[in-house]
Amino acid sequence: QKEVEQNSGPLSVPEGAIASLNCTYSDRVSQSFFWYRQYSGKSPELIMSIYSNGDKEDGRFTAQLNKASQYVSLLIRDSQPSDSATYLCAVIKAAGNKLTFGGGTRVLVKP
Amino acid sequence: DAGVIQSPRHEVTEMGQEVTLRCKPISGHNSLFWYRQTMMRGLELLIYFNNNVPIDDSGMPEDRFSAKMPNASFSTLKIQPSEPRDSAVYFCASSFPTKSGGGNIYEQYFGPGTRLTVT
Predict the structure, then answer these.
(1) What integer pLDDT is reported at residue A64 of this predicted model?
(2) Mean pLDDT throughout B69-98?
(3) How many Cβ pairs within 8 Å bridge chains A and B?
(4) Low-confidence ranges of chain A (pLDDT < 50)
């Protein structure tokens, strides 16, 4: 079992709809969770971080964390073609500041 | 503020040659990370430093790879000798701890990457 797992996609979403991305992690002591967006040929860009159970909203993005079930999700509301990218889930375990990344989910928003 | 700076942005070299990648972290950040990204293996952590000291180099593929951080504003990743399978995009990232609740949180920021092609 991989430490951080994501569906590779592609996740095809019509413009204006909600894109829902999921990520599961194996280490129960993980404490910090991040979502990065990576456009083709570019570097990962941090878009959300979450540390406590529940929801965290930032603009059109909402991160959801459920530590008991060991999953973290990202919702993108009112999806735009410019949201088409690969979204990487990353986790820091309790000790240290080392990120472990999932394989990423490719999102395609169709006009 | 300037972000993480990497050079060169592109490097094409022949097998057997030495390659040196450079990174300048964001000013004030005390942790620096080197990653490699390929289609097959995704984003892999090679090594990271805290306060210029290597903490975890378990991701370094083999002895051909070495990394240094002589001061807080500069790091290098060297491959000697290079091989075609080293072809990848190499990213540098930096972070610093901020307080949240009862502990520290570390948000990492990536540089633009160096695309390495070894022929």
Answers:
(1) 97
(2) 95
(3) 50
(4) none
Q: What is the C-alpha to C-alpha distance for residues A6 and A20, in angstroms, rounded to an integer?
A: 12
CB distance B96 to B51 below 8 Å: no
pLDDT surpasses 80 at B1 = no
Closest CB from B43, B55, B106 relative to A88: B43
Q: How far apart are CA B80 and CA A93, in angstroms?
A: 32
CB within 8 Å: B48 and A98: yes
pLDDT tens digits, residue range B78-89? Answer: 999 999 999 999
- The closest CB to that of B112, out of A43, A88, A99, belongs to A43
Structure token pair of residue A91: 């986790």
The pLDDT, as a whole number, for residue B62 is: 85
Residues 4-43 in A contacting B (C-alpha not used; CB under 8 Å): 31-32, 34, 36, 42-43
How far is the C-alpha of A32 from the C-alpha of B102, rounded, in Å? 13
49-88 in chain B: CB under 8 A from chain A: 50, 55-56
Q: How far apart are CA B9 and CA B116, in angstroms?
A: 8
B61, B116, B4, B105: which is closest to A44 by C-alpha? B4
Instruction: Identify whether the C-beta of residue A39 lies closer than 8 Å to the C-beta of residue A85.
Output: yes
Burial of A49 (0-12, 13-18, 19+ CB in 10 A): buried
How far is B11 from B6, CA to CA, in rounded Å?
A: 12
